[in-house]
Design goal:
Layout (H helix, E strand, L loop, with lengths): L8 E2 L9 E3 L2 E3 L11 E5 L10 E6 L2 E3 L2 E3 L5 E8 L18 E3 L6 E2 L5 E5 L6 E6 L5 E9 L2 E9 L5 E2 L5 E3 L21 E2 L1 H18 L4 E3 L30 E5 L13 H10 L8 E3 L4 E5 L10
Parallel strand pairs: 4-14, 16-18
Antiparallel strand pairs: 1-2, 2-6, 3-5, 5-12, 6-7, 8-11, 8-13, 9-12, 10-11, 13-14, 15-17, 19-21, 20-21
Helix pairs in contact: 1-2
Length: 310
């Protein structure tokens, strides 16, 4: 059982002979990782089209003279909040900062309108069951358990922990500033926007090698892939959090600069020819496209319908 603990000590009444030690517990089977040093691990991003709810439970066990008890009717409140400036989201802005939502179907439970808090009492088994539905934004969040004796806060990450940094001798990394608008996208330098699955990395290195053999040009300009933990990749300052960089949530897609040479990209490729090599070297046949108006090939190893990105 994965646990978040609240501790307290109390003496008096019938318990003068020993200390009471109680704690609230959050139990779950993380999609990725284990509890380690106060971190619950990773939960996959979730969307209306691809929900990924996580079942959790809170308890208020205590011990008296080393004898454990699991009381019923213990009031517990659970709160969730986002942590700013995480996973490359070096910005705020927009109407609000999205966060994962709490809910509970337990008898007598209540949940706030915005989903940031749910509360109730432990049932006959000593558990208060509730659900965490992760946001689409990859980020660190905190979850806090509160009972009458105190509170305890732990952190977890929304995102994927299987992405690798995309770096290869023939790649020039670009994209920290939008190539069309010259606007800083709010995600720091190129160390934050080139994360990808190992499959995408292998597909792109194979495509690059094929391009070198066919064209004799050993360099390409690699634009956005994904943020370090994936999740919604918002690139427009006027609509922070709300408008994704389409299909760049899972680390399966990568953009390769096309068109004419510029100061930002001295090594553009021929869009049609490079796209053909993408498809011949592992990238998805239908979700890999040449976006001429955006001056890049969009090569995707997956069908975006298989992951949360809406």
């Amino acid at each position: 059982m994965k646990r978040i603990r609240l501790t307290f000590e109390k003496s008096g009444g019938r318990c003068l002979c020993g200390a009471w030690v109680g704690y609230a517990v959050l139990a779950t089977a993380p999609l990725f990782g284990q509890i380690n040093g106060g971190t619950l691990g990773f939960y996959a991003p979730s969307s209306a089209a691809n929900p990924a709810p996580v079942s959790l439970a809170a308890q208020c066990p205590y011990t008296v003279n080393n004898v454990p008890y699991l009381p019923t009717g213990c009031s517990v409140s659970i709160n969730v909040a986002p942590v700013s400036q995480t996973n490359g989201h070096l910005h705020e802005g927009g109407a609000f900062h999205p966060f994962s939502k709490l809910s509970s179907a337990a008898s007598g439970s209540s949940t706030s309108a915005d989903g940031s808090q749910t509360s109730g009492v432990t049932d006959a088994t000593g558990n208060f069951y509730f659900t965490l539905t992760p946001t689409l934004v990859g980020q660190t969040e905190t979850i806090t358990a509160v009972n009458a004796f105190g509170s305890e806060q732990y952190s977890y990450n929304v995102g994927y922990n299987d992405l690798v940094f995309g770096q290869f001798a023939s790649w020039t990394l670009i994209g920290a500033t939008d190539s069309l608008t010259s606007v800083n996208t709010g995600h720091g330098g190129n160390a934050n926007n080139h994360w990808m699955t190992t499959q995408t990395y292998y597909d792109l290195t194979s495509t690059t090698q094929a391009w070198t053999q066919a064209r004799g040009n050993c360099m390409i300009c690699v634009n956005d892939s994904a943020l370090p933990w994936g999740g919604k990749f918002d690139i427009e300052s006027a609509s922070r959090w709300m408008k994704p960089h389409v299909s760049h949530d899972r680390g399966s897609a990568v953009d390769i600069a096309t068109g004419v040479a510029t100061a930002g990209c001295p090594y553009p490729v021929d869009g049609d020819k490079f796209l053909s090599l993408c498809k011949a070297n592992g990238f998805n046949q239908t979700s890999s496209i040449y976006e001429k108006t955006k001056n890049h090939d969009h090569c995707n190893s997956l069908n975006p319908a298989t992951y949360a990105y809406y």
